[in-house]
Amino acid sequence: MTTSHAMRSRRLLIKVPEITIWFWIVKVLCTTVGETAADFLNVSLNLGLTGTSFVTGLLLVVVLFLQFRADRYVAVRYWLAVTLVSIFGTLLTDNLTDNLGVPLEASTVIFGALLAVTFVGWYRTEGTLSVHSINTTRREAFYWLTVLFTFALGTATGDLMAEVLGLGYLVTGSIVAGLILLAAIARKAGLHPVLAFWIVYVLTRPLGASIGDMLSQPAADGGLGLGATLTSVAFFVAIIAIVVYLAWSKSDVIPADHPPADEQASGGLMQTTVVLAVLLAAGGTGYILRTSSLQDTSPVPVMVTGPATAGTPGTAAAGPLGDLSSFRTITQDTLDLLNRGDQAGATTRVDALEASWDHGEAQLKPRDATAWTVTDGKIDTVLRKLRSTSPVPATEKAALTDLLSALK
Predict the structure, then answer these.
(1) Which domain range does residue 180 map to?
(2) C-alpha–C-alpha distance, residues 340 and 336, integer Å
(3) Which of 179, 196, 286, 323 is most buried when burial is the number of CB atoms within 10 A of its CB?
(4) Among 93-97, 358-362, 381-385, which stretch is predicted with the lowest mean pLDDT?
């Protein structure tokens, strides 16, 4: 085989885009959609977590089948696959947390280990982790498996910081953005390009999720209150616009004679060891200090917005999660509004329940993780019923009544 023929073959088999500024912009947009679209399908369309996972998983299998059968990179097909992987990776973590009751700490460790095993298997088999080397089916399989685990790990890590550790999405996003900036500076200072790429790739997941939460969450919880539907649509439109431009301009197509400089860089193994050690030490220390601080701090008052109705129950003796009377107030308010036929008012009022519950998670969950998970599941059911595109008052009232019995 001549050199020119080999280069033509390599060009036909390159299945990923060049790493440009457009790559990172679309990656963050896809990540944000992964967060908001999962919420939209789960809650707004009332598919539930299992139904959403099944639908998204089926679509992902179809798109990846087409991606693997293709002989070159095509922007539309590639980014559609990334978007679906983002949604499905989010759902992997959500299923472990909500359906199986796996703590986010455990999910973070599990997906971190799976990602590490994938990297080791990829490197031992192929001798490189460079995205510029995705020119065989086996390397592409390693690549997409890695992408899936980065989204799942990023989801678990971001939710752990924002919810369990009570940092909120604004602080979490700021921390992650700072780490990305640090990685970029380190890259300029000599950090191995492949290592720098995958560090940023993982970190863009919690960054995108924080952006999505900031836009979609209610104003009472510090968000802009755009909702999951509007946020998802806006970002989908942005993704489509950029991908159409890339498909037209071909500006992110890796040329046949592209020199894979990142494969030639040295010191990757030593740098990876050092970076992992620093991240694990800093992350572990931060987690211990933050959880200790939360345990030593008195529970923060839970936000209760809007007037309570005459039917609001009084404060009862605190259960395993402490005094939940504020949540009962909101739940009873919502039920009273439904009983009066005010569907719009009930749907608006239940936003305060979601915001208050998320706000109080960092203090409530450590008291009794099992009780918290059960109650959290009932709240998710209430949110799905109230936000359904075709709400049924009878099922809404049943879900609210069931939740009231759990908020003891």
Answers:
(1) 9-251+270-294
(2) 6
(3) 196
(4) 358-362
Q: What is the pLDDT of residues 88-112, one digit of tens each?
A: 888 888 888 877 778 888 999 999 9
Nearest of 270, 269, 278, 265 to residue 190 by alpha carbon: 265
Question: Domain check: are 171 and 77 in the same one?
Answer: yes
Cα separation, 13 vs 194, whole angstroms: 20
d(CA 325, CA 143): 49
Local structure of residue 301 (DSSP, 8 states): P
Q: Give the three-state DSSP class for 322.
A: strand
H or E element: which one contains 215? helix 193-216
Q: Report whether 319 contacts 182 (CB < 8 A).
A: no
pTM: 0.76
Q: Are 308 and 380 in contact, with CB atoms under 8 Å apart?
A: no
Query: Is residue 380 in some structural domain?
Result: yes
Contact 207, 193 (CB under 8 A): no
Neighbours of 238 (CB within 10 A): 15
Q: Across the strands, what pairs with 322?
A: 319
Question: In the predicted model, is pLDDT for residue 350 greater than 90?
Answer: no
Residue 314 lies in a domain: no
At how many degrees (to 10) do helices 75-94 and 48-69 cross? 150
Residues above pLDDT 70, as percent of the chain: 82
Is 50 exceeded by the pLDDT of residue 304? no
Domain count, the chain: 2
- Amino acid at position 190, single letter: G
Torsion of CA 44, 90, 64, 16, to 10 degrees: 120
Per-residue pLDDT, 297: 56
- CA dist 189 and 209 (Å) reads 29
Q: H-type helices in 217-321, by residue range?
A: 227-249, 261-264, 268-296
pLDDT at 220: 57
pLDDT given for residue 79 in this prediction: 92
Amino acid type, 93: T
CB 138 within 8 A of CB 125: yes
Residue 5 is predicted with a pLDDT of: 42
CA–centroid distance for 134 within its chain: 25
C-beta neighbour count of 5 within 10 angstroms: 9
